[in-house]
Amino acid sequence: MGSAVDTLVFSLLNGTVYGLLLFMVSAGLTLVFGMMGVLNFAHASFYMLGAYFAYTLQGLVGFGPAVVAATLLSGAVGVVVERCFLRRVHHYGHAHELLLTFGLSFIIAEAIKLFFGNHPVDYRIPPALDVAAFTLGRQQYPAYRVLMAAVALAMFGVLWLLLTRTRIGIVVRAAIHKPRMAQALGHNVQLVFMGVFGVGAALAGLAGAIAGAFYTTNPNMALEVGVMAFVVVVVGGLGSLGGAMLASLLIGIVTSLAVGVDRSLADLLAVVGAGAWAEGIGGLLTLKLSSLAATLPFALMLLILLVRPSGLMGEKA
Amino acid sequence: MRTTLSLVAAGVALLAALPALLPAGLLIASIQMLIAALFASAYGMLSGRAGMLSFGHAAYFGIGAFATVHAMNALGGTGLLPTPLMPLVGAAAGLAVGIVAGWFATQRSGTSFAMITLAIAELLHALAPQLKGLFGGESGLSTMRAPAWGLGFGSTVQVYYLTLAWVLLCLGLLYFHSRTPAGRLMLALRENGHRLRFLGYDVHGLGVSAFAISAMFSGVAGALQALGNEAANYAVFDAGVSAGVVLNSTIGGVGSFLGPALGAALMTFFGYAASDATQSWLLYQGVLFVLVMMFAPAGLAGLVAAGARLVERRGWRTAASVALLAAGATVLLGAGGVFIVEMLQRLCSQDYRALAQAAAELPAVRLLERPWSPTALSTWMLPAGLLACGTVLAVVARRRVGSAT
């Protein structure tokens, strides 16, 4: 019995950490979306760039400085993307911008394949950090996961304080809410856009630099995390930071718990005596929940769109 | 009107004569081009006319393909649905799934719509390998084209004509749809959904119909692919397939009816021709797409239209000189860019890295049947010179156009 509880606690912890990681990626995405009305397809590419930058620099300057440099470099790429690409096609409308970021994400992924090859690279956490944080039952919990969670929580706190308690935050929120009015009041809205875009990209790069060492660093990581981040943004409510946090945790925990459940719908139906019938039907009904874990976030997103189209904490529909 | 009709007739005649003109390998590529053109047209109808960007159209393509494989295996090409009518199964499956998915997706518009379509496609992609009975797991399903109507469907030529007939029929239907009042309403939906609602139209219903029709024709394209390959694998649900149709249609230009088909046919052909020569074809495709988005938002079809306008305003002579300059600039810039990418690709390859580790100084790279030293200045001066000359030509061409308008 004790081991079952341990497993449950571990699943919950892992899910929370994964959720916090998702939050790090989707925070920038949801802020940029709220501000410019543009879903940035290339956002997850900054996450991937962060991981590859850190991987490349790790051998030269060590892990810690590499993470910092990767964060800054990803932010710089983000600024370039906003300044040289997005701003130039802004007058064609949102659909055009969306397609452009889509093309950029495609190019970044292909460029990564060009430079690093179409396979995972050997990016690992440094041995000094590869220790156990605490022991639960008979299993050890890696300190690096705790570190990832701490970074994400610190990021959430800083962003929250910055947006709600400082003058810069007020200007940013004004630029998000009513860009024209903010401009009329003499604020450089273009600069704010560029800054928020760059910060969002830097945060995604930080997430990539940290998470890439723990999970795998490969050319598909942008797509995998990117799609999940879109789901988070929709479920949480477009443009809502708190919603992104809530949705990230929800999706992280649900996915993590589902992996550990070895039951299918047929087992559930067996409780009401329809088990044999479900076995006969096969297909979806006999699939184990653990093998459906990857599809659960999408199902959740469709459910949210049906029940509450504006997302968990979104304001507008 | 008469010139358009005669152009279309000439195009159809050329397509019909292709099997006599092309070797077998290129004929297979032509089948792929036709299928890609139909898929892109179906996509262009939704994204261009109705203004709904779908990033998950692989789902309906794949559903059409799998439904056809199942129908071919179940019916064996006999009875009411002989082999040539099999794409009807793909159409029905695409339509049915399109209605359900469209009902969800069109609850929202704009960006959210795009994300929902992406999520639905990813859902299918994640689910497909698990459902072995339906999608054959990792290995996929295979089938056989049964003889029907006195035809064996064993040769590539017969498959080509079957594909051609279906693609032309579907393009005709899509064109007819764009001329009907329902098709006209798609434009209104794109321009101003609110006003349409005030006028008393059922906006959600219209959106679902646009989505379902697009999914139906995507299903036909998938069915033709399954007929051609005699197999289907869950890889058709891959995000790359969805991305490909977005890139191809936009490069061709979703603003015009034939733009997406043109773009898809061209890109498929280049992909076929380039896949042996380079490993970086997808990178070129992406760069081309971004360049089109930045400098020619109406796509290749828009460039053709701009050329026609130039002829009208300034006569053949100016237009021809601008076209020549632009073509020269494209060739030079393209050559310079491709050279750099191919050099980098070879420099970063695993084989080369292993060589470089062993040797004292960086070994030369073989490209265009010639060794190039990566440390020599001349190696990098060549692409730089190409790019510089290309830029000069592009600027001159642009000045000419500017003085013309």
Q: What topology does this entry show?
A:
The complex is a heterodimer of chains A (317) and B (405).
Chain A: H1 2-36, H2 43-61, H3 63-89, H4 94-116, E1 132-136, E2 139-142, H5 143-165, H6 167-177, H7 179-184, H8 189-214, H9 221-236, H10 241-259, H11 265-271, H12 275-281, H13 296-307
Antiparallel strand pairs in A: 1-2
Helix pairs in contact in A: 1-5, 1-6, 1-8, 1-9, 1-10, 2-3, 2-4, 2-8, 2-9, 3-8, 5-6, 5-8, 9-10, 9-13, 11-12
Chain B: H1 2-21, H2 24-49, H3 58-75, H4 87-105, H5 110-127, H6 132-135, E1 141-142, H7 156-179, H8 181-191, H9 193-198, H10 203-229, E2 231-232, H11 239-252, H12 259-274, H13 281-295, H14 299-348, H15 350-358, E3 365-367, E4 370-372, H16 377-404
Antiparallel strand pairs in B: 1-2, 3-4
Helix pairs in contact in B: 1-7, 2-7, 2-10, 2-11, 2-12, 3-4, 3-10, 4-5, 4-10, 7-8, 7-10, 8-10, 11-12, 11-13, 12-14, 14-16
Overview of this protein structure:
The complex is a heterodimer of chains A (317) and B (405). Chain A has 317 residues and is mainly α. Chain A has one domain (2-260). In chain A, 73% of the residues lie in helices and 3% in strands. In chain A, strands 1-2 form a two-stranded antiparallel sheet. In chain A, a hairpin with a 2-residue loop joins strand 1 (132-136) and strand 2 (139-142). The longest helix of chain A has 35 residues, at 2-36. Chain A starts with a helix and ends in a 10-residue tail after the last helix. The mean pLDDT of chain A is 82. Chain B is an all-alpha fold. Chain B has two domains: 15-268, Orthogonal Bundle (ABC transporter involved in vitamin B12 uptake, BtuC); 303-404. Chain B is 75% helix and 2% strand. In chain B, the strands form two sheets. Chain B has a two-stranded antiparallel ribbon. In chain B, a hairpin with a 2-residue loop joins strand 3 and strand 4 (370-372). In chain B, helix 2 (24-49) packs antiparallel against helix 10 (203-229), helix 3 (58-75) runs antiparallel to helix 4 (87-105) and helix 11 (239-252) crosses helix 13. The longest helix of chain B has 50 residues, at 299-348. Chain B is globular. Chain B starts with a helix and ends with a helix. The model of chain B has no long low-confidence stretch (mean pLDDT 83). Classes of the chains: A mainly alpha (317), B mainly alpha (405). Chains A and B meet through helix 3, helix 4, helix 9 and helix 13 of A and helix 5, helix 11, helix 13 and helix 14 of B.
